[in-house]
């Protein structure tokens, strides 16, 4: 007797094993998260999201992660609120089932791309014309993953005073590569010209006059304004760090360094307010101005904020002195103690085929059917079109290999690459 019971009991093992393996792999303890936000509205088109109770495995508190995001809308707020309400679910829906923590983090960049494109496609199908920037930050213990379109920046400040940018600004004025891509895909880039032919203001894309090269929404501007995010994933050292996520109302007034310096030594709640205050002091309230500050704090050091700039200089001096007579091995240990950040992933290409990769694991659903890598609909065997088909990549990878796209998403991909006029569907 009991052989079936035994088998059933055995069936329970994988999940338990998975959880215990994850607990064991947790060599460093979990950091504490503290966050604060502040906003000053002028047009009422900035929205944000803070969600600290997400779970990779429903009901398993050990699988918790947090999401922080800013959506800076233009030409109305519908795209911003739609993205705030749907993007997270679309990203989570793009994961294959049953992934462990490390596999999940590895699959996250691709899930973010799929989630952004699906959100854009769904929003555009509603026929609304507004658009939004998105800066979407997922914090899973010491690993920070940022996906962004537009110019709402996310910066990282670490112990030792190194400030780094985790996003790139998708602004036509500052981003040559993006300017070339938009032009090659059929967009026209130029400045606003006023009476007498005098050109004023930043470079914009015509028709529409948008200054950004990537966004969610913006159906009336053209599909070459793509929703494919720049994605960067980093792992912080055990010294933790501070994230500052803010809309361009901040970054038009303050450099990344200035914003980081302005709030060092303050707890997150006050820090966000201080950054907004500092930006307004410099430039006045010309735009919606939103800021989220997230502190990732080592467990043995739960309330000590980042050092102020004086202390930080001392730390830096100490570190450089060490450098001259320490062996390489000792030095690298010192580096991680001071706050060296490990870069895990970075990709900014606007080509969907490059971003969805050759992931075999994501192309098959649990029912054994193929699914669209973007919108996750089931595909009949004859329906799926490889993301690589007809592209330059079909030389090196096999066009019958996944990931696959449904006909609709394939249309969207072609339009984004300028191979098909926007808004025109092939019957
Ligand atoms: Zn699809």
UniProtKB/TrEMBL annotation:
<keyword id="KW-0904">Protein phosphatase</keyword>
<dbReference type="InterPro" id="IPR015655">
    <property type="entry name" value="PP2C"/>
</dbReference>
<keyword id="KW-0479">Metal-binding</keyword>
<keyword id="KW-0464">Manganese</keyword>
<protein>
    <recommendedName>
        <fullName>protein-serine/threonine phosphatase</fullName>
        <ecNumber>3.1.3.16</ecNumber>
    </recommendedName>
</protein>
<keyword id="KW-0460">Magnesium</keyword>
<feature type="domain" description="PPM-type phosphatase">
    <location>
        <begin position="27"/>
        <end position="296"/>
    </location>
</feature>
<dbReference type="GO" id="GO:0046872">
    <property type="term" value="F:metal ion binding"/>
</dbReference>
<dbReference type="InterPro" id="IPR001932">
    <property type="entry name" value="PPM-type_phosphatase-like_dom"/>
</dbReference>
<comment type="similarity">
    <text>Belongs to the PP2C family.</text>
</comment>
<keyword id="KW-0378">Hydrolase</keyword>
<dbReference type="InterPro" id="IPR036457">
    <property type="entry name" value="PPM-type-like_dom_sf"/>
</dbReference>
<dbReference type="Pfam" id="PF00481">
    <property type="entry name" value="PP2C"/>
</dbReference>
<dbReference type="GO" id="GO:0004722">
    <property type="term" value="F:protein serine/threonine phosphatase activity"/>
</dbReference>
């Amino acid at each position: 007797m009991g052989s079936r019971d035994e088998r059933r009991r055995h069936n329970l093992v994988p999940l338990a094993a998975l959880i215990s393996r994850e607990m064991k792999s947790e060599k460093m303890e979990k950091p504490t998260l503290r966050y604060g936000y502040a906003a000053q509205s002028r047009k009422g088109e900035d929205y944000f999201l803070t969600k600290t109770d997400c779970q990779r495995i429903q009901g398993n508190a050990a699988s918790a992660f947090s999401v922080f995001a800013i959506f800076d809308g233009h030409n109305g707020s519908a795209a911003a609120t739609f993205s705030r309400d749907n993007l997270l679910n679309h990203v989570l829906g793009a994961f294959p089932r049953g992934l462990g923590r490390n596999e999940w983090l590895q699959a996250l960049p691709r899930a973010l791309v799929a989630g952004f494109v699906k959100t854009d496609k769904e929003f555009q199908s509603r026929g609304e014309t507004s658009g939004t920037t998105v800066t979407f930050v997922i914090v899973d213990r010491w690993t920070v993953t940022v996906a962004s379109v537009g110019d709402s920046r996310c910066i990282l400040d670490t112990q030792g005073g190194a400030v780094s940018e985790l996003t790139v600004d998708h602004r036509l004025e500052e981003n040559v590569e993006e300017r070339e891509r938009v032009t090659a895909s059929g967009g026209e880039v130029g400045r606003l010209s006023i009476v007498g032919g005098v050109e004023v203001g930043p470079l914009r894309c015509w028709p529409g006059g948008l200054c950004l090269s990537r966004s969610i929404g913006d159906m009336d501007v053209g599909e070459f304004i793509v929703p494919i995010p720049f994605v960067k994933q980093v792992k912080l050292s055990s010294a933790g760090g501070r994230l500052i996520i803010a809309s361009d109302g901040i970054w038009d007034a303050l450099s990344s360094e200035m914003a980081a310096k302005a709030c060092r030594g303050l707890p997150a709640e006050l820090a966000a307010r201080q950054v907004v205050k500092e930006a307004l002091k410099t430039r006045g309230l010309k735009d919606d101005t939103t800021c989220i500050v997230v502190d990732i704090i080592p467990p043995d050091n739960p309330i000590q904020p980042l050092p102020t700039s004086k202390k930080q200089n001392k730390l830096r001096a100490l570190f450089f002195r060490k450098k001259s007579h320490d062996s390489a091995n000792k030095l690298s240990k010192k580096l991680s103690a001071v706050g060296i950040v490990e870069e895990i992933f970075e990709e900014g290409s606007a080509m969907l085929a490059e971003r969805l990769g050759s992931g075999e694991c994501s192309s098959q659903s649990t029912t054994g059917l193929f699914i669209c890598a973007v919108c996750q609909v089931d595909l009949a065997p004859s329906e799926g079109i490889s993301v690589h088909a007809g592209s330059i990549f079909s030389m090196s990878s096999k066009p019958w290999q996944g990931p696959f796209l449904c006909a609709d998403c394939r249309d969207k991909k072609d339009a984004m690459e300028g191979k098909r006029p926007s808004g025109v569907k092939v019957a």
